[in-house]
Design brief:
Layout: E1 6-8, E2 18-24, E3 29-33, E4 39-40, H1 49-56, H2 66-80, E5 88-92, H3 99-106, E6 110-114, E7 129-135, H4 144-153, E8 155-164, H5 171-175, E9 187-188, H6 191-201, E10 203-209, E11 212-217
Parallel strand pairs: 5-6, 5-7, 7-8
Antiparallel strand pairs: 1-2, 2-3, 3-4, 4-9, 8-11, 10-11
GO molecular function, one term: methyltransferase activity
Organism: Microbulbifer taiwanensis
Protein name: Class I SAM-dependent methyltransferase
Length: about 220
């Protein structure tokens, strides 16, 4: 792409100034950071908090939904393989039906809940944890740099952060990707982005599944 598509605004993850147009549809524009490769939606297209909450209220996840349990299992299973018995963790962005926390509790771990809208427990964000898990959350963050730095700061040495988010594969696939149809999805990560992030955090990185990322704090 030529320089005419380059904008001078900060990447929400790495604060780099240069970003190029990656894709545009009839609803939004998407830019890619030239440094960390994050694809992001400019703030002018972000929903208001009330609009965002209303959209989340349309979701129908349930603690009794076996399909949802199988979906979350792709993150829970590799995480459990890395945890010591009786570990203490945080489910960041647990939503209205914290099935993920329930699955980890069933496996013998203790889990605190935090969600901006559904479990705004500020105290949970001031404690330290052996693990932090966040499924289908980081693509919603308007300030991923600050949020991830804070979470990393409350993770104990040797602790594990497990993230679940669909990954950008190519511009061609991005064009018809169902993931960008959700108006609350505003940050799109790739393997390249997570390698950059792991370098910044000095973390051990593992891609446990196509959309499951594990980061261990050294």
């Amino acid at each position: 792409m030529d320089g005419s598509n380059e904008l001078s605004f900060n990447c929400p993850l790495c604060r780099h100034l240069a970003a190029q147009l990656y894709h545009r549809d009839k609803f939004r524009s998407y830019y890619q950071c030239a440094n960390c490769a994050l694809v992001f939606v400019p703030p002018e297209f972000h929903l208001s908090p009330d609009e965002e909450r209303a959209y989340y209220d349309l979701h129908e996840n349930s603690l009794q939904d076996e399909g949802y349990r199988r979906f979350l299992g792709r993150c829970v299973t590799p995480l459990l393989n890395e945890l010591r018995p009786g570990s203490e963790g945080l489910d960041f962005g647990c939503g209205p039906a914290p099935l993920l926390a329930q699955m980890l509790t069933e496996a013998g771990h203790r889990v605190e809940l935090y969600d901006t809208y559904f479990a705004p427990n500020a105290g949970a964000m001031r404690r330290e944890y052996d693990f932090i898990v966040s499924t289908e959350v980081i693509e919603h963050l308007s300030a991923p740099r600050e949020e991830l730095q804070h979470l990393w700061g409350i993770l104990r040495p040797g602790g594990m952060m497990a993230l679940m988010t669909k990954l950008v594969l190519s511009p061609e696939r991005f064009t018809n990707w169902h993931y960008i149809r959700d108006p609350t999805h505003i940050c799109f990560f790739s393997q390249q982005t997570f390698r950059w992030l792991a370098g910044q955090l000095q973390a051990e990185l593992q891609f446990a599944d196509s959309d499951v990322i594990l980061l261990r704090k050294k």
